[in-house]
Specification:
With 91 residues, the chain is an alpha/beta fold. The chain has three helices and six strands; from the N terminus they run ββαββαβαβ. The strands form two sheets. Strands 1-3-5-6 form a four-stranded parallel β-sheet, covered by helices on one side. A two-stranded parallel ribbon has the order 2-4. It is globular, with a radius of gyration of 11 Å. The protein starts with a strand and ends with a strand.
């Protein structure tokens, strides 16, 4: 299982691509998106992340932390791109 640590500010589609295609992320394996430090994000970032995960054939991922808005955005993106998501809010 690979872990992608999301930055404090995550609003770029290019950043989403770079994070998913990093060498330490393995295709066909579950991924943990660690958003405990993220304070700013948008729907475009979430959508691009889900798109890129799907392209890498990663169809299951867990989300740790992040704002309720982030969690809603990543759930919606996962549903759009048919990716299974387990969100842990850590409150």
């Amino acid at each position: 299982m690979s872990t992608i640590r999301l930055p404090r500010i995550a609003v770029s589609r290019d950043l989403a691509k770079d994070l998913v295609w990093a060498d330490e992320v393995k295709a066909d394996e579950p991924v943990v998106l660690d958003g405990r430090w993220m304070v700013v994000n948008n729907e475009d970032f979430a959508s691009q992340l889900a798109t890129e995960l799907r392209k890498r054939n990663i169809v299951h991922f867990e989300v740790l932390g992040g704002s309720p808005e982030w969690q809603d955005a990543i759930r919606a993106a996962g549903a759009t791109y048919n990716v299974q998501i387990n969100v842990q809010s850590l409150d």
